[in-house]
UniProtKB/TrEMBL annotation:
GO molecular function, one term: acyltransferase activity, transferring groups other than amino-acyl groups
Coiled coil stretches, renumbered: none
Protein name: GNAT family N-acetyltransferase
SUPFAM superfamilies assigned to the protein according to its UniProt record, in alphabetical order: Acyl-CoA N-acyltransferases (Nat)
Organism phylogeny: Bacteria, Pseudomonadati, Pseudomonadota, Alphaproteobacteria, Caulobacterales
Amino acid sequence: MQLRSCRPADQAVLADLWFESWRSTGLQQPVVTRNDLARRARHELATRWTVTVAEAEGRLIGFVAICLAERRLDQLFVAPEAQGQGVGRNLFDVARSTMPDGFWLSTQTDNLRARAFYERQGMSVDQTGRALADDTVVYVLRPPERA
């Protein structure tokens, strides 16, 4: 597996990966199409996101989208067939090294697999009441204490 910056030619594949990875969660699906995600990816890449992709044998198997201005890990998805192989952890580490002073993210409350993953990475539920919607939970990663 290789990590690299997202290229313009990756956008369509990134949207497909995003769509299939989301579908694999089995969670309530919003009415979003592949084309919707492709449009959003193009917009976010042009305006807010810094994206690192994971690639294996010439194909994308995951990505992490970071919004530096908000200190937010906005998206982290791994292809269903690549889950459980350390891809997500490596992508999460990109966010950790890019934002060493900490960051936040949100996920659906019932996305138990993602929540367990974020907690294993050292994140905790934000107790400040910052919620984006009733069905979301906000996690924060605080920087390590310095002596």
